[in-house]
Amino acid sequence: FADDLTGGERKQVDNVAHRGAAGYAPENTIAGFDLAVDMKADYIEIDVQKSKDGELVVIHDTTVDRTTDGTGKVGDLTLKQLKSLDAGSWKDEKFAGEPIPTFEEILDRYYGKVGILIELKAPQLYPGIEEQVAEALKKRNLDKPQNEKIIIQSFNFKSMKKMNKLLPEVPIGVLTSNHTDTTTEALQEFSTYADWFNPNYGNVSKELVNQVHSLDMQIGSWTVRSQEAADLLFEMEVDAIISDYPDYVDPRN
Ligand code: G3P
Ligand code: CA
User: Fold this and answer.
1) Cis bond before residue 183 (omega within 30° of 0)
2) Which pTM was predicted?
3) Does residue 98 contact residue 59 with C-beta atoms inside 8 Å?
């Protein structure tokens, strides 16, 4: 707990490092995730997709064009091809050669050290990705959330309903960016399978926070890229702040 600007007590909020500490290091790379751990984030947020030969890989866009020195769709490239790409230089030359991590590499490196907020990115492009993610977690006993902080989220609601069936003990999040997904009816439907409701921060109000809590869900909001946005979300008493800059969310600052 930390003092807020009015001198009162500030609620404990999970500090989620969006795609790693993406403001400071190349997104979805070990360099970024390690930095997030050093910055005392509670969770790292990762985007999971699938290679042509069926390996789960951690990258945000559905093409490699923006964040690597290659071109093409993630799903059209083999793991070997994806691994040969430089996912660091675009951010800064000091990160040259940072590879695209696999999902299993991330689980093995970070579980027990930091929470992992796993986003299934465009799961409709990758049939069977839910089962594959579930298997990787089960293999490591990470389907028992009492031991580890694992959350699975997506903008694809159907995929999250399926994930909830596959891993009933793992918290599920729905990501939304439309006002139409914040109606009472929509929230009630989400609460039948989700534990987290995660809207973009422009859609958050104190009323929405209360409504989400009254349905026994928690609320995490994204993507915070300014101290003002972080402070606003603290004031509205969200449960998690998903930020490119973990220091904006750190109560010690
Ligand atoms: O965790 C929330 C956030 O990651 C959703 O948007 O586009 O950054 O994956 P995006
Ligand atoms: Ca994401």
Assistant:
1) no
2) 0.95
3) no
Residue 2 has a pLDDT of: 42
Look at residues 171, 172, 176 and name the one whose alpha carbon lies nearest to residue 201: 176
- φ and ψ at 31, to 5 degrees? -55, -45
pLDDT band for position 148 (cuts 50, 70, 90): confident
Question: Is the pLDDT reported for residue 64 higher than 70?
Answer: yes
Of 143-152, 171-180, 233-242, where does mean pLDDT reach its minimum? 143-152
Q: What letter does residue 63 receive in the DSSP assignment?
A: B
Confirm whether 18 is a catalytic residue: yes
C-alpha span between 59 and 72 (Å, rounded) = 13
**Phi and psi at residue 164, to the nearest 5°:** -65, -35
Encode pLDDT of 21-39 as tens digits.
999 999 999 999 999 999 9
Residues lining ligand 1, CB < 6 A? Answer: 18, 45, 47, 60, 119, 175, 222-223, 242
Among residues 19, 50, 60, 91, the one annotated as catalytic is 60
The CATH number for 72's domain is: 3.20.20.190
Domain range holding 88? Answer: 2-249
In angstroms, what is the C-alpha Rg of the chain?
A: 18
For residue 8, what pLDDT is reported? 55
Which one from 14, 16, 17, 18 is the annotated catalytic residue?
18
Residue 213 appears among annotated catalytic residues: no
How many C-beta neighbours within 10 Å does residue 21 have? 26
Return the ligand 1 atom nearest residue 16 CA: 1
- Count the domains in the chain: 1
